[in-house]
Amino acid sequence: MSITSSCKRCGTCCRQGGPALHGPDLALIRAGRLQIDDLITVRRGELAFQPLGRCPEPVHHEFLKLAGQGSTWCCAFFDETTKGCRRYHHRPMACSVLDCTDTGPLLDLAGQDLLTRFDCLSADDPLLALIRDHETTCPCPDLETIGRQLEHPATKAALLADLEVAVSRDLAFRSQVAASHRLSLARELFAFGRPLFQLLQPLGVQASNTPAGIRLALNSR
Ligand code: SF4
Ligand code: SF4
Q: What is the pTM of this model?
């Protein structure tokens, strides 16, 4: 939400999703104005909307963004009752430059000096080892390529079988770490991003938990 006089406080920009965080926003985290549990990691390989983008694009460098509300991307700090920002005086940089009548400054900022989870943790934070372990064990696949491969009947079944293994491994890792380190869901989303099965949903892949384990199926399109 902009600070400019042209802002009508409609809330549309905040409902479309919280901002990505940039270098200067690290000061908000260090001052305790933002907690890491307010943030979600978007990993390399995911598909994500760029500011003002109309369709999701491949993520080449991971970044952090403000978490959403419930299952939506509506910014966690957006107050629907007042159509206002609960952190207005300490909002991230991308929010302070956003003016929907002049999107140039936001587009200039997009992709620049993006913060990652590694910027937010001290060198001795035990989460670091877990994050690296997760990246090694459960790297995020290239979802753009997977989306294309799912279009081909000849390769679809084998690909879904491979993805079932990857989804199961990712869920098992999260479950084990959540139990052993008492991670909240918010901390898990900061540390490891969203589970693979959620990332596959926009590609039409639905996961179900069966007695035989995780099974994936493609929605008819
Ligand atoms: S910046 Fe534009 S979209 Fe966002 S709240 Fe203001 S008027 Fe609405
Ligand atoms: S931090 Fe505030 S201004 Fe920025 S998207 Fe969230 S609710 Fe809107």
A: 0.93
